[in-house]
Amino acid sequence: MAARPLLEVRDLEAWYGESHVLHGVTLSVGEGETVTLIGRNGAGKTTTLRAIVGILRKRKGVIRLGDRDLMALAAHRVARAGLGYVPEERGIFASLNVEENLLLPPHVADGGMSVEDIYRLFPNLLERRKSPGTKLSGGEQQMLAIARILRTGARVLLLDEPTEGLAPVIVQRIGEVIRTLKSLGYTILLVEQNFRFAAKLADRFYVMEDGKVIDGFRADELSAKSEVLHAYLGV
Ligand code: ATP
Which residues contact 34 (CB under 8 A, 6 or more apart)? Predict the structure, then answer.
């Protein structure tokens, strides 16, 4: 693990209305690390990301980004602090074309990638730059969603199931993009059901079950964890 945790979550609880969904999630991500959150459907992975970025407000516990206390910040301020969230539903503007989406990122901070840099990283977005969001394939939408977050200057990326519903060749391409981002020093917290995909990228894993983190291990401990993985993920 990297020397110091950049993102630190401790004893996080969260509710949807009266429904208590997270029961004390503790995890950390070091600077430059790629960490994957795995677990069955409904384990609370998406809720954890939504609570971290402050979209889900009914929560308690500790969330820190470096020296900053994120619990005190509204979602747009969390984004400005450098935390970028790519939700499962992607959140691009369907009526705008690729380039317009890239020129309208939410909350651009210092250090956001230029549109030229984005096109270097995603050559297919350059080819499709005049295509409206409605005409993009699932993979192109996913890449555009990641690209928009890179435009904001976020250095910590929270990616919710980026491979969901995508063809294997596109999954591979998304994997290459994440690897490149990792080599550029981005810190990544990834939620993934596709364990094979995650296993090739992650430095560490956390397993979630019933709104809690029940296990955590490094990539080099994977083989020793096959029973846990089989029990909780069926892999
Ligand atoms: P999945 O892979 O299916 O998205 P997950 O691990 O991300 O699973 P969450 O989406 O975080 O799980 O869901 C955790 C629990 O919270 C589940 O019991 C789910 O039914 C519940 N839940 C999720 N969204 C809401 C909501 N908007 N209102 C009420 N309950 C919700």
Answer: 178, 182, 187, 188, 190, 201, 202, 203
What is the value of ipTM here, to two decimals? 0.95
Q: Pick the closest to residue 5 from 27, 29, 26 (CA basis).
A: 29
pTM of the model: 0.93
Q: Which residues pair with 16 in a beta bridge?
A: 19
For residue 75, the one-letter residue type is: A
E strands within 66-113?
A: 68-69, 83-86
Q: For residue 48, how far is its CA from the centre of ligand 1 (angstroms)?
A: 10
Closest to 118 measured CA to CA, from 130, 103, 133: 103
Distances in Å between the Cα of 144 and the Cα atoms of 79, 96, 116, 128 are 18, 12, 14, 10
Cα(104) to ligand 1 centroid in Å equals 29
- Residue 193: which residues within 8 A CB-CB, separation 6 or more? 38, 41, 161, 164
Q: Which of 69, 54, 50 is nearest to 10 (CA)?
A: 69
Of all protein residues, the one whose alpha carbon is nearest to atom 18 of ligand 1 is 42
- φ, ψ for residue 177, nearest 5 deg: -65, -45
pLDDT tens string 52-72: 999 999 999 999 999 999 998
Whether residue 215 contacts residue 45, with contact meaning beta carbons closer than 8 Å, is answered with no
Does residue 217 register a pLDDT over 70? yes
- Ligand 1 mutation pick, 12, 22, 46, max ligand atoms within 8 A of CB: 46
pLDDT of residue 194: 86
- Relative to beta strand 204-209, strand 212-218 is antiparallel
